[in-house]
Amino acid sequence: MKHIPLYNSDKLSIFSVLPKVEMELPFMGTVSAGFPSPAADFLDIAIDLNQYLIKNPSSTFIVRTTGNSMVGAGISDGDILIVDKSLQPENNKIAICVLDNDFTVKRLKVTKQGIWLMPENPTFSPKKITEFEDFEIWGIVTYSIKQHG
Length: 149
Fold this sequence. Notes:
The protein is mainly β. It contains one helix and eleven strands, in the order E-E-E-E-H-E-E-E-E-E-E-E. It has one domain (about 1-20, about 40-145): Umud Fragment, subunit A, CATH 2.10.109.10.
């Protein structure tokens, strides 16, 4: 998956996606977390991560995160998020938002009383969006990719 930088700040880096770059990787099947399982039978099957991770290529972009306000949702500093602009923002979805010209990633809480940006770390406070703030939802997070090791 090739990407082109679009925006970079100390809080967020945004990249566009070029899904036409093909890279098929061997698909090893499922892996047991218990006893070992022979995986050699799956070496002839391949998976294209573009097809697996990107459902709407023209409306998808990639974000690299900074900070730890979403660790409870499994999103840590340095993770790469796949974001789809075509998906509807809904209650409980994780979204990339712009609030007063600052990008953030938070869980949406949508109620009759308004929209809240909910962190997934108890050391951070929820933020209620008011009519006095410049607010926009850029897209919904569909995948989080992290480096282990």
